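Input structure tokens:
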């Protein structure tokens, strides 16, 4: 068991809270963690970029001149890649960038990421809170009181529409539920703020 700094719903320090070692006491496997993070980032790519080949470009398929006897290079239609207005050779096409990673490795990677951030002093806890009004300034002041500036991650037990709307206005802030947070979100944040009611859900997810 280890302890993490605790803040109340107003951002004031409230001492420390004991957290389970199953969440924050694992020794990271850097090689496996790198593999999972690469897979998570690859899965976020849309893969919708596309180019037109010579078969997709509009234009006649007529052979422009006879094969021999003209003194010029042989040619087929007017759409070869080395001609202006021609198709693209070996260009990108829609594809999926997803990589296969086992469920067990995904769970362990999140545990490793949380442990690494906690060991570096980058994780704090906050008591469950709700914004009285959907004002970005209110959420910003609360996070700043906990030391979260710039690249930060806020982990909640459940989705809060008001917090999500305010959080998207803060540059560098990622608001995620305990059921969907990923290892790359944890590692890319300089400060991870976790609601205390999200801890049981994280623990159940990693069980």
């Amino acid at each position: 068991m280890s302890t993490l700094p605790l803040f109340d719903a107003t951002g004031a320090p409230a001492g420390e809270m004991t957290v389970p070692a199953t969440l924050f006491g694992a020794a990271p496997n850097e090689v496996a963690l790198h593999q999972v993070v690469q897979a998570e980032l690859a899965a976020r790519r849309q893969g919708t970029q596309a180019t037109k080949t010579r078969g997709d470009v509009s234009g006649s398929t007529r052979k422009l001149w006879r094969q021999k006897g003209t003194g010029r290079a042989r040619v087929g239609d007017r759409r070869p890649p080395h001609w202006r207005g021609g198709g693209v050779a070996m260009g990108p096409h829609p594809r999926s960038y997803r990589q296969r990673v086992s469920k067990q490795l995904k769970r362990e990677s999140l545990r490793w990421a949380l442990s690494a951030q906690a060991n570096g002093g980058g994780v704090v806890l906050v008591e469950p809170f709700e914004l009285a009004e959907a004002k970005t300034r209110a959420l910003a002041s609360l996070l700043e009181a906990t030391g979260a500036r710039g690249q930060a991650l806020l982990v909640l037990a459940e989705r809060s529409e008001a917090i999500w709307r305010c959080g998207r206005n803060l540059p560098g802030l990622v608001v995620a539920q305990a059921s969907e947070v990923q290892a790359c979100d944890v590692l890319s944040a300089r400060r991870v703020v976790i609601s205390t009611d999200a801890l049981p859900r994280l623990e159940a997810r990693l069980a």
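The chain has two domains: 2-45+99-205, 48-96. Residues 103-119 form the longest helix (17 residues).
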